[in-house]
User: Fold NAD-dependent succinate-semialdehyde dehydrogenase from Cellulomonas pakistanensis.
Amino acid sequence: MTSPLPPYVAAHTPTGLLVGGEWRPATGGGTFPVADPATTDVLFEVADATPEDGLAALDAAHRAFPAWREVPPRTRSDVLRAVFDAMVARAEDLAALVTAEGGKPLAESRAEVQYAAEFVRWYSEQAVRLDGLTRRAPAGTHHQLVLRRPVGPALLITPWNFPIAMITRKVAPALAAGCSVVIKPAQLTPLTTAYFAEIVRAELDARDLPAGIVNVLPTSSSRALTEPVIADPRLRKLSFTGSTEVGRTLLRQAADGVLRTSMELGGNAPFLVFEDADLEAAVEGAVAAKMRNAGQTCVAANRFLVQESVAPEFADRLTAAFDRLVMGPGTAPDVAVGPLIEKAAVDRVEELVTAAADDGARVRTGGERPGRRGYFYPPTVLDRVPEDARAVREEIFGPVAPVVTFGDETDALRLANGTEYGLVAYAYTRDVGRVMRLAEGVEAGMLGINRGMVSDASAPFGGVKSSGIGREGGEAGIEEYLEPVYVAL
Assistant:
């Protein structure tokens, strides 16, 4: 096996299961490989958790929960603050892992680590602000006391595309609320999760807090592992980030136990450019919204809906901007676009581009798989794209920007809302009245106005329609791990 990781990071990255406060092999000793998508070289063999391991981890979380929920909020806050400080101190180690197993450029990995740490800091502050309510009943017959208590052990299932940020966005509010957790990281990117979990384990152990508050189960058989855990009545919360298809399956499984669920699912984000937009700013925002992690994000701009009068100029400018992007391994200098995560991802992106060209779209740049090692696909701009092309209707999850034209604002809203998804939308316009109409009319949980990034640890993140249930981040994020209890006095 080869490794592009610094020796210290490689030596201190756990490759086992974290169950009950201890790293150990999987039952039966099974492992699976984790590869670098830029080279296809294997980085590590990681323990392959079994259903038995899943139930053992849930048992550990269940046993730890009563003691953890009784830990003073200030102590929980201090633990999270110490984890934040440790993440900042080890930011380069974490970024190296993100790039090694996920492929994104180091600059993006460093930004992800900073973003991830902000969730830990934010919820360290929220842990001591879990306010309740007391008031006199309207009838005047009694007083109402509303308390909020942790829901219980939680199963957290995270995706591969942001292997540290998606973990902290779930773990931090869960721990702040007083919940214990079982984490099932993505098969493709479990290493960053393991490194982060060891930071948390060490901080808990240093304070003699219960073992089993945080458990980690990498596996190559996700459904086989999670089904018995979800069916176990000791589990009280399920949080998932991933595809809508898998989310629907998990919701059906969670229904039998009437679990609290939060789902951050697929997207098909429209990027609206109106004729009064600052086109230079719009192109800059388009590159940011489309090309982060080579387009492999749920909030990536998927459809570029541009008013007819400015569409040719916008397409020209976007093409020139894409041509300036350097593609290569994430560790190489000046690289802005890394590899896709696996061969199947490249195959699918290539298929969507070919289908769009067959439907009459014009390939302005890119559009051909490079003859090089690794899972690369070049930044690609398509214009003259029919609105019913697959690249418009489906989530691309790759570095492809299809440009579709619209006539007026009504037409723009029709196109923007013409999908089952509603996670995020972006719009560029100088018209304040239009901004308010878009805020009311666009069917999405988040809207970026004249900016290509919306995510912030202090703001609610989530969608509508088939893009999910619940919110992560902000004050809303911790509510997902709390339940109100009403006492009539």
In short: The two ends are 65 Å apart (CA to CA). The longest helix spans residues 106-126. The mean pLDDT is 97.
